[in-house]
């Protein structure tokens, strides 16, 4: 990962996701340029910049996250977003998305 998660200008819950990434996931993705939104972070694959995942708090129940996935090219039938996901499932989904 290209950024110190503790120093990221993000909401505490978003930093919690970043520090919870295990070594495999952290090596497979980087944090994209900051959008300025403390309630969202965009991660991209270290080798495929267009393979991204946006983790956000907007509109989610307390203690859960939303994830929106981006792929280099459209993939029919692939889930593009998840809502109200607990942290362990977020980590599982990110590992699968980035194939870590």
Largest sheet: 5 strands, antiparallel
**Oligomeric state, counting identical vs distinct chains:** single chain
Average predicted confidence as pLDDT? 91
- Can you list the strand order of the major beta sheet? 1-2-3-4-5
SSE string, helices as H and strands as E: HHEEEEEH
Number of helices: 3
Instruction: Return residue spans where pLDDT drops below 50 for at least 5 consecutive residues.
Output: none
Distance between the termini: 13 Å
According to DSSP, the number of beta strands is 5
**Roughly what fraction of the amino acids lie in strands?**
25-35%
How large, in whole angstroms, is the Cα Rg? 12 Å
Protein structure class = alpha+beta
Global shape: globular
What proportion of the residues is helical, as a percent range?
Answer: 25-40%
Short description:
This protein has 100 residues and is an alpha+beta fold. The chain has helices spanning 12-20, 23-28, 87-97; strands at 29-31, 40-45, 52-56, 65-70, 81-85.
Tell me what the structure shows:
By secondary structure, the chain is α+β, with helices and mostly antiparallel strands. Helices cover 26% and strands 25% of the residues. It is built from three helices and five strands; from the N terminus they run H-H-E-E-E-E-E-H. It has a five-stranded antiparallel β-sheet. Strand 3 and strand 4 form a beta hairpin. The longest helix has 11 residues. It is globular, with a radius of gyration of 12 Å. It starts with 11 loop residues before the first helix and ends with a helix.
